[in-house]
Amino acid sequence: MNKQGLFFLAVMLVLFSSCRNSTDHTEPSQMAFKITEQSWGTIQNDSVVQYTLTNPQGTQVSILNYGGTVTQLWVPDRKGELGDVVLGFDSLSGYLQKANPYFGCLVGRYGNRIAKGKFILEGQAYQLTLNDHGNTLHGGLQGLDKVIWQASKPAGDSSLKLTYTSKDGDQGFPGNLMIEVVYTLGSDNALQIAYSATTDKATPVNLTNHCYFNLSAGKQNTILDHEVMLQAEKFTAVDSLLIPTGQLPAVKGTPMDFTSPKKIGAELAAVKGGYDHNWVLNRKGNDLEKIATAYDASSGRLMEVFTTEPGLQFYTGNFLDGTLKGKWQQPYQQHAAFCMETQHFPDGPNQPSFPNTILKPGDTYRSLTRYQFSVK
Ligand code: GLA
Question: Does ligand 1 lie within 6 Å of residue 276's CB atom?
Fold first, then answer.
């Protein structure tokens, strides 16, 4: 090597080592994470922004600050081809329409139903806004799915943090509730959602996410051929308006039994209205545990659900009827997707035998759910 060559090599070595030692402390696998932002318009004076998190494998999740809504989730099939496995709309107006059936959003303050929107807490009666046949569904008329959250990006480019303060009296709920939700995309193709909240008055809290999954990425019009396993031997029986009766029947030998993987469509016709129930999860403790799987043999995509929650609402898109046009103007027909909403049980505040849903001042509500994607 001539003198010039040696000099060049020396300069490169110095540059390389100073770069590694002083400024770049990121692990190589972290280097390819990125977050991009796209404007999705405004609501009154607030900007609506879509944040897209991409991991080193190209797996991608897009989330709006409006409702903390997951708009897209691109994961590989068994050939390595990415496909968008969640239902949604192409633009904000889709999400703002009244017919939006909670596509991809965060749900609260109380996911699922509270009978007649009433409960008594510390001797005081509360009345919530009613939005579902005289009951309160998913937090009432203007739940957490219909508000703008404050977004920030914690270090590492793999997470999006959303915060929101729901004021004392919001939808009839007591206390100022300070809520934080962190979405994290793992390098292992997991989407993790960490929820936490604090309050200044005792109040019910039950937060979840309402993604509608179709693991074939729309190649199959329905999810009836997806195979599902739910780690649950009981479910909460409900009346005709899907309000729990308090009974927890065993699933064994009934169409509700998903203890071993079974096609969603296998016995769905025997369940009036389709699956829209809370399964009582078998849990070993309070840590993150795998409680459900869903598999689409046509694409090879497998989704495993881990949670710290005691219940799971498994909903098979029964109310979709082909009238709603989603992304790329596709009509979403009945059973086009399924939801796995990790949660405490419906109507918890009125059912003393159900796991506690009351958050007290000084305590912190915490809940963690992970949707893990792979292929087989
Ligand atoms: C939940 C409910 C369903 C339905 C959907 C939204 O899954 O349990 O009954 O309201 O949300 O359409």
Answer: yes
Non-local (6+) Cβ contacts of 362 within 8 A are none
Tell me which amino acid residue 326 is.
Answer: G
Domain edges within the chain:
1-30, 34-375
339 lines ligand 1 (CB under 6 A): yes
| Cβ of residue 16 lying under 6 Å from some atom of ligand 1 | no
| Bridge-based pairing state of the strands 177-185 and 159-166 | antiparallel
End-to-end C-alpha distance for the chain, whole angstroms:
52
C-alpha 250 – ligand 1 centre gap (Å)? 22
CATH number assigned to the domain covering 34-375:
2.70.98.10
Q: How many CB atoms lie within 10 A of CB 321?
A: 12
Active site residues: 210, 341
Alpha-carbon gap, residue 49 to 312, rounded angstroms? 30
For residue 141, report the distance from its CA to the centre of ligand 1, in Å: 14
Q: Are the beta carbons of 141 and 117 closer than 8 angstroms?
A: no
Question: Cβ of 67: how many Cβ atoms within 10 Å?
Answer: 27
Q: Counting atoms of ligand 1 from 1, which one is nearest the CA of 137?
A: 10
Ordered per-residue pLDDT tens for the chain, 376 residues:
555 554 444 444 444 443 333 333 444 444 589 999 999 999 999 999 999 999 999 999 999 999 999 999 999 999 999 999 999 999 999 999 999 999 999 999 999 999 999 999 999 999 999 999 999 999 999 999 999 999 999 977 899 999 999 999 999 999 999 999 999 999 999 999 999 999 999 999 999 999 999 999 999 999 999 999 999 999 999 999 999 999 999 999 999 999 999 999 999 999 999 999 999 999 999 999 999 999 999 999 999 999 999 999 999 999 999 999 999 999 999 999 999 999 999 999 999 999 999 999 999 999 999 999 999 9
Q: Which two tokens stand for residue 362?
A: 């000084």
Cβ contact 299:216 at 8 Å? yes
